[in-house]
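Standup notes
- HV: blocked on the assembly model, inputs below
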Amino acid sequence: MDPVIQQILDRYRRIWALGHAQLLMGWDLETYMPEEGVKARSEASAELSLLRQELILSLKDLVEKADKREGLDDLEKGIVRVLKRSIKFYSAIPPDLLRELDRITSEAPVVWREAKRSSDYPKFRPYLAKIVDLERQVAEKLGYEGHPYNALLDLYEEGFTVREADSIFSTLIPGLKSTFDKVAERGYFPSSHPLEEFQYEVESMAKVNQEVLKLLDMPKGRFRMDVSAHPFTEGISVDDVRITTRYEGKDFRATLFSVIHESGHAIYELQIDRSLEMTPVGGGVSMGIHESQSRFWENVIGRSREFVFLIYPTLKEHLTFLEGYGEEDVYKYFNIVKPSPIRVDADEVTYNFHIALRYEIEKGLIGGSTDVSDLPSMWNDYMDKYLHYRPRNDGEGVLQDIHWSQGSFGYFPTYTLGNVVAALIRSHLPNLRDLVRERRFTEIKEFLREKIHKYGSIYPPKELLRRSFGEVYNPAHLLSYLSDKYLR
Amino acid sequence: MDPVIQQILDRYRRIWALGHAQLLMGWDLETYMPEEGVKARSEASAELSLLRQELILSLKDLVEKADKREGLDDLEKGIVRVLKRSIKFYSAIPPDLLRELDRITSEAPVVWREAKRSSDYPKFRPYLAKIVDLERQVAEKLGYEGHPYNALLDLYEEGFTVREADSIFSTLIPGLKSTFDKVAERGYFPSSHPLEEFQYEVESMAKVNQEVLKLLDMPKGRFRMDVSAHPFTEGISVDDVRITTRYEGKDFRATLFSVIHESGHAIYELQIDRSLEMTPVGGGVSMGIHESQSRFWENVIGRSREFVFLIYPTLKEHLTFLEGYGEEDVYKYFNIVKPSPIRVDADEVTYNFHIALRYEIEKGLIGGSTDVSDLPSMWNDYMDKYLHYRPRNDGEGVLQDIHWSQGSFGYFPTYTLGNVVAALIRSHLPNLRDLVRERRFTEIKEFLREKIHKYGSIYPPKELLRRSFGEVYNPAHLLSYLSDKYLR
């Protein structure tokens, strides 16, 4: 190990330890914390974030020194790269700007929730205007080449640009429209299914979920699942990865697929090389790559015919209402294709339309060509164009997602990246159907470990994909995966 | 607020936040953490402890400056006092000594466990000898007046001395011996009971425990109970206090009284004045005072006839084997008096004998008059003298407790202090029986809040007791409480 890098790593241990504590605090907040504990928890989190930020900034000279060293290997270069990104962020954004963002993004979600409930966009608009203004300032402070939105995209997906996103969506949208129209025409995949309406017993469904975790061979001593209002994954350490699910009592796909989705995230965190623990490159590399893992497991594997056949006996055993519904029924139920106005309810075919429209809106807002007052009609026009559906009100339209109220601009596109990369991965596993049918999940995991997981954040996302698959964000794989599945 | 104190408090916030994180990490370690997470968790804890220590030491100049300010109020003086204690500790003990202690006290419990299992004291002896040697060095570095053991006692119970402990035990032991002999003679309280043998369903017993928490009016949004191998309480914040219990499946007293015991600790943490949160005086003041609260609820209230009558219907409802056993049976079962060789199994009458012998041994080891090789016979002689029982082997004798392997010298006496102070408190509540009979737990809690809880660590333990009760560690109250209860 290079001596300067070694010095950095020694000093990084406490930064890692703070991160470890913060992850646990976040997990606990959503799972077991008594509700009135929230005030102290928020104060403590804010203090630790500030402390962590100071400690990271204190590495500046050392990281600059390391950056000039010659002969660094890939791991060492990765360490320098990841730290430089953090240092750049904290150095570029003035504390006042961060504080203002913090303040408004802790108030805005409350206003957003109320506005969504009453479909009252004008109520939320001034907050959104302020947040957009601050986000544009962030972009200016961070600096960018080309479009200012690039600065924000890079925060969620290192190196990802408007140029690339434009190229992806301009191929994807017409292809998806054509697939979507044909699916509707052929009528094999239904737009609704009786199984959506059945109530389940939480205890029975919890048993199904446990069986699925067993099938995926999630390692008992290093992994756990709990319940929270919104499902999430937390990789607290390589030997302590936790997911959550929720039980809504109806439409059992929701909890089942959140378990599989979060397991995909968890498998990534569990398979990062353990030598990277306690270093700056010890986590998943980006939102898009992480999302590719969750969507690979949820959609490509979980919604496949082979997987349905595999878990059908377990479903049948615990869910008595399946009497009279066979594997084929469940497969159709898992793959309903319907132009829903709501992103989180969208199926594989229509999902990316929802992202495309958010991407266009964000790009316009940050670039200055779109004003917040244009949003509702712009949103509804896109929905009409893509899905032939006009939202009945702004609650099921422009107000449906919490993201903007939290200041997350540049985040949505990583969902489509996840789908694009999941399909890229699938294209490198020609025998995937056999692997699933024969329960050879260990082999699938091994493949993912070798191609993606083990590297942690050593390589930036595009370099990682290029090294492992020879190409980057090629949407053709997603289009052919979807037409293979839905139009065969 | 004094401006220097204000400066200290501002800088203390991050120290408080680190403590908050560490408490949660400790709770999680014993409750939900996947077992293989332990390695990363230990590393993270160690890093954060070190960081916290550095931050506390960085307050040295400011605290010295504050210490010279005139006109500080009690709160401000308390803040200075508590910080001075921490700073003194971290400044006095050389890092090498701390590291050596850390090392051996992480190895020794493993050896101790093995030695206890095989009743092999010689196996553990060299570790104990080394730990005693290091603890004596700690005492020398810290400095003391009178006996070197005073330096260690003070770590667990501020200002508590060998002189006071000697005085307590020299009154307590003959008094307890006389009570114990008479209890045995009269035969009303049995030395065993059929109810000890009944197996319970964990689910039923969990319901009983929940009912007891309801009876004690534990605040739902600020409190929770989980399961762990060893029951404990963690006050993560004033609005987030957690206890645990365990279910051994037999002898339902154990889980019930651990719930009441830990609730006593929890009520203390829940009732500290919320203006003290995020300050150095925001926690319970000492081990002895904390233990007085848990024992007051567990023994004085929980094992009282009135409490038994109160919870009997709940017990009867959930524990079917109580058919044929009335309130009086349960009362006797809860108050078996038996000279057990094992401290944690001891009843109210014999418990303090166990502490007295440990106190004498620790005092001798740290003072240099006792050698580790003398321990087994010394232990057994004391047991014989106090309880007319000679341990059959060192597993049920000198090796029974984990404490020494963890380097906890000076801790045991706080258990007796807890009993002494619990009885002192009881002497100030002449109508306690009525309060319990009439379920007026809110009034009891209010009394404890006003006398003890709300002050946090503003006053050192003896000053707190003197202010609230006009006296300190007077063992007469414990003796009269026990003879009232057991010899009436």
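- HV (later): unblocked. The first helix of chain B runs from residue 3 to 31. Chain B has a mean pLDDT of 97.
- Next: hand off to the docking folks.
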